[in-house]
Design a protein that fits this description.
about 180 residues; Beta-Lactamase; about 30% strand; globular; alpha+beta
């Protein structure tokens, strides 16, 4: 990650997951990342409409010159990038892998704007909607409203090593050493 805002948000998210693959949505406290809230958004998964915005920060809405609540995230991308961003969103939300991507857009004044997009999953719980969060950090932008985004690069971040839970350790303590069972011939 290149942008300091993305690094700070990832660090906070990583602390909240506490060794798990992803934190619960309720573990993320907006007050703890107050200075980043304008660039943060939350998406939910809806089979009919893809990944609509549940919440979008003020700077994210200002970039696109409209309120984003309820709009499909993938629809913000040019047709050539929509399938790729939809696939990335699916991997983030279903496989619980964090992703970082490079995104460009053309501003209304014709200048190119470059962004770093961070996508972070929330833990999937039974009877709870699938959702994820993210941060859109400007790398270079003139301040003009933007057109469609184009995906330029992306990568997934590996899971941390999983902890062995105490129940598994207890089972290992019962079966010590190497056991050989003879079979019938």
């Amino acid at each position: 990650m290149k942008h300091p805002s993305n690094r700070a948000f990832f660090k906070y998210w990583d602390e909240k997951r506490d060794g798990e693959r992803a934190p619960d949505r309720s573990a993320i406290e907006p007050g703890a990342v107050r200075e980043l809230l304008g660039d943060i958004f939350v998406l939910s998964y809806d089979p009919a409409s893809g990944y609509p915005f549940r919440v979008a920060g003020t700077r994210v809405c200002a970039l696109l010159d409209r309120d984003l609540q309820g709009r499909n995230f993938a629809a913000l991308f040019a047709p050539a990038s929509r399938d790729e961003i939809s696939d990335i969103l699916g991997v983030v939300s279903e496989e619980l892998l964090a992703a970082v991507a490079g995104v460009t857009a053309t501003a209304t004044d014709g200048s190119l704007a470059h962004f770093e997009l961070l996508l972070l999953p929330f833990n999937n719980r039974a009877h709870a909607p699938i959702s994820l969060t993210g941060l859109l950090a400007p790398m270079q932008h003139s301040g003009q409203p933007l057109g469609e985004f184009t995906l330029t690069s992306w990568r997934y971040m590996n899971h941390p090593p999983q902890r062995i839970v105490p129940r598994v350790l207890k089972k290992l303590a019962v079966a010590r050493g190497f056991m050989v069972y003879e079979g019938l011939r």
